[in-house]
Amino acid sequence: MTDDREVRRRPGGRSARVTAAVHTAVDELLVEEGPGGFTVADVARRAGVNPSSIHRRWGSLEAVILELEAAKLTEISPLPDTGTLRGDLLAYARTAAADIVRPGRLAFLQALIGARDLNTEQRSAPLLQRAAQLQSMLDRARDRGEPSLHYTAIVDCILAPVYLRYLLGMSIDEPDLELFLDRTLASTALPNTR
């Protein structure tokens, strides 16, 4: 005997709805309370889910923040394609410097620092996703005949000084970004030890 009632399925199912609700709650709380200003229980209450669902799916609040912030990077900070490596790197550096001052944007760094108890895969998965995107931008430049870089050059020479200057309360001006860019491009002269 068959049931004539139409079976309605929502795309993504319950798991996708829980993930979306948790991501939305964390995003809102990051802006309202700042990193470290809320707990898994606060997220669960706002998302309308049980805290055990968050612990089971992510393991910790830091893991949720890492996943959310990595996903947001692709959305709010797409990688530039200016036609030149220098142009791409300068545009990326400008975006990174402008983005870090927005409310809640240090959450990714703070979650990484707080995620010492996560296993290596949980800590590195969101980072590797963005690293692959950065490497594809660099590979595109290499394919045009420009210098070959590894994504860690961007981390070492652009992101690290941008984050450190912000944390120390130092300004970041266009000449600073040019200096970071020159250091990044100079890293191609170093022997590849990666």
TrEMBL record:
Keyword Ribonucleoprotein found: no
Residue ranges of the annotated DNA-binding region, renumbered to this chain: 39-58
Residue ranges annotated for the HTH tetR-type domain, each copy included: 16-76
InterPro entries membership: Homeodomain-like_sf, HTH-type_TetR-like_transc_reg, HTH_TetR, Tet_transcr_reg_TetR-rel_C_sf, TetR_C
Keyword Protein biosynthesis part of the UniProt annotation: no
Pfam families, per the entry: TetR_C_11, TetR_N
Gene3D superfamilies per record: Homeodomain-like (1.10.10.60), Tetracycline Repressor, domain 2 (1.10.357.10)
Keywords recorded for this protein, A-Z: DNA-binding, Transcription, Transcription regulation
Protein name: TetR/AcrR family transcriptional regulator
Species of provenance: Mycolicibacterium komossense
